[in-house]
Design goal:
single chain; about 140 residues; mainly alpha; Four Helix Bundle (Hemerythrin (Met), subunit A); globular; cilium; cytoplasm; FliS_sf; chaperone; cell projection
Length: about 140
Amino acid sequence: MFSPVSARATSAYRQVGVQSMVDGASPHQLIKMLFDGLISTLHGARGAIERGDIGEKVRHIGKAVRILQEGLLGAVDRERGGEVANNLAMLYEYCVGRLTLANARNDVKLVEEVADLVGTVSQGWTEMGLQGSATAGG
């Protein structure tokens, strides 16, 4: 009887928590959150393909593409970032293409390829943040 209200309250609580994390995050932490969300979404897409759940596959891949295009690619400053920024932009665009193909073919290997590529960049991003905090603290 109270489940719908409870579910709505839980959802609202989560949204407030996420908004609080975003509001207090540095630009570096925001990009890290995008990477974390992208990797989680890619795992969801892989699982949906393996289960044959087309609706969930489409939802997860769509979300992953949006994170890549609107979040990560949108944050790349090609003018100031030089070659590294251009290479990241090309990588993100490549990943969008691979996910589009994965969606059309129900191909879990393409999703895993993107997860591996993004995971490597995410790890590097995390290490940059750790080095930056060590430098700032010492």
